[in-house]
Amino acid sequence: MAARKNSRLVVTLAAVALVAGALSYAFWPRPTLVDMGRVTQGPMQVTIDEEGRTQVHEPYVVSTPIAGRMMRLTIEPGDRVEQGDVVARMLPTSPSALDARSREQARANVTAAEAALRVAEADLNKARADRDLAEANLERTKRLFDSGIVSQAALDSDQRTARAANAALDTARAAISMRVAELNNARAALISFDDTGLAEAIEAEQDEVLPLKAPVPGAVLQIMQQSEITLAAGTPILEIGDIETDLEVLAELLSTDAVKIRTGDPVVIDNWGGPVPLKGEVSRIEPWGFTKVSALGVEEQRVNVTIRFLSPYEDRPTLGHGFRVETRIVTWSAEDALIVPAGALFRAGPDQWALFVVENGVAVQRAVQLAANNGLTAAIATGVSPDEQIVLYPPSGLMDGQSVAERTAYQ
């Protein structure tokens, strides 16, 4: 009987111990599962990334100096030209055909000009006769004055008459020149495609071909007018630029990013199609911003930033004018920085950053001072040491001094 009671007591105690152990295991505090990483040391850069396009800094546009007929061009885009090479040729504008009314008016103008010329010739003959008579009278009066027969007043009167006759003769001669010019102008207005003298006029035009020469050495960037066509004065024909030495990159940066860069900042030019990135530097930041609507319909203030190539032409022989590239303007860099993922940082105050450092399985909150942050990684100036284990993306409930464990792929 006593043995049976002892056996029951042992079973009871074992059951109580088992329940107590299960409850202890269930309510025992467990470490919080978190993602962990380590503080690394190495080079780091903070860049402003933006798309850009290449352009020739000083392109030269060859345009028509006069109105006329441009002959068909024989050069193509990409052809190399030297300064002074003939790139285009122009002819004076051919006369247009006249309608019946205009032709009759032109013929009437020619007839009127011929009649006016005959009147001017008659006036010239009269002026010559008046001059001869005035000079003869003056000679007789001089002889009579020397003999004391006529007075000084008579001599002065004949001298004035002679001078007036010479002036009238000069006027008649000028009128002849004017009437001849009017006749030539009237005859020129009568020229049309039906005139027999047009062939001779066109042949004369061939001797008046105006060559257009390249102002600078370079490559032909684009051609605006290829075929033979009649153009007005000032019409652009082609564009010339030096891709080898004058190529640059134009990037449109947000105004909030443009204020962070300075002239001379290094630039990495990537995704241009070549095997390796190219080097460049900021050469100009325009002081004037402009509004541009993004693909999402948002108005943005943009600023043009010009980037000069530092890589030699041999590294980019196929890069031309108007090509797309991606630019990374370096605003901060260090060769030996303490680097942590940006997701490990959180705000511990208005101007204070912090992170959790794992020490013996315990998360310890530590204030840090940032040197730079590019959105993916951050450079720490003070607060951590290389190879320390840190908590990545700390959960909102994680507290200082709380036990933590690294989360695995199966947890």
Word description of this protein:
This protein is α+β, with helices and mostly antiparallel strands. It folds into four domains: 32-42 and 336-406, conserved putative lor/sdh protein from methanococcus maripaludis s2 fold, CATH 2.40.420.20; 48-56 and 243-334, Elongation Factor Tu (Ef-tu), domain 3, CATH 2.40.30.170; 60-94 and 209-241, OB fold (Dihydrolipoamide Acetyltransferase, E2P) (Beta Barrel), CATH 2.40.50.100; 100-191, Helix Hairpins (Orthogonal Bundle), CATH 1.10.287.620. The chain contains six helices and 21 strands. The protein has helices at residues 2-27, 100-146, 152-189, 198-206, 243-246, 255-258, and strands at 32-38, 40-56, 60-63, 68-70, 80-81, 86-92, 210-213, 218-223, 229-231, 236-241, 247-254, 266-270, 278-293, 299-309, 324-341, 346-349, 352-359, 362-373, 377-382, 389-392, 402-406. The protein has a six-stranded antiparallel beta barrel. Strands 3-10-8-5 form a four-stranded antiparallel beta sheet. The protein has a four-stranded antiparallel beta sheet with strand order 7-6-4-9, with no helix packed on it. β16 and β17 form a beta hairpin. The chain is rod-shaped, with a radius of gyration of 49 Å.
